[in-house]
Amino acid sequence: MAKTKVVTMESDIETAPKEAAVEAPKKGSSKKQVINGVATVNVSYNNTIISIADSIGQVIAFSSAGLLGFKGSKKSTPYAANMVAKDCFEKTKKFNLTNIKIVIKGVGPGRESAIRGLAGTGLNVLSIMDATPIAHNGVRRPKPRRV
After folding, report:
1. What does the pLDDT look like over 100-109, one tens digit per residue?
2. Which of 2, 3, 51, 75 could form a disulfide with 62 if both were Cys (CB 3.0 to 4.6 A apart)?
3. What residues pair up with 98 in beta bridges, in sequence order?
């Protein structure tokens, strides 16, 4: 069984003028404007992670110390936390972010520095909230040993 090939000449087919063709808008070209955002800062003894989301919770930018090239024990330094905050703000410039709420979680050396880095970028800081998880009673004690 042989395959048949249909060949059409371009001059035979009438086409619409190319000037009138409407291009479909690109998917990435229409960026939404975010006025109010929430910055979640996760600070641990090993790393600092910052994510900035809009008011309904969709993340628009994130950054971490490991993403910026810090390795090992340098990821948990206050300098790295400050650089992460500035890098995350640079990623949100295309969204015209102006107001921000900061939610900080965890204990680590870069805790204060990350807040200063976000506040020093020119954003209006509306509130700072601490969401560090605190253990209330711990796990159940083991049963007494029977000898």
Report:
1. 999 999 998 9
2. 51
3. none
CATH number of 36-130: 3.30.420.80
Residue 87 CA to residue 42 CA, distance in Å, equals: 15
CA distance 126 to 9: 65
Q: What strands, in cross-sheet order, belong to the sheet with 99-105? A: 59-64, 48-54, 36-43, 99-105, 124-130
Q: The tokens of 132 are what?
A: 């560090």
**Tens of pLDDT along 81-119?**
999 999 999 999 999 999 999 999 999 898 999 999 999
In the block, tokens 């921000």 appear at 100
Using alpha carbons, list the distances in angstroms from residue 123 to 55, 87, 120, 127, 143: 16, 14, 7, 12, 54
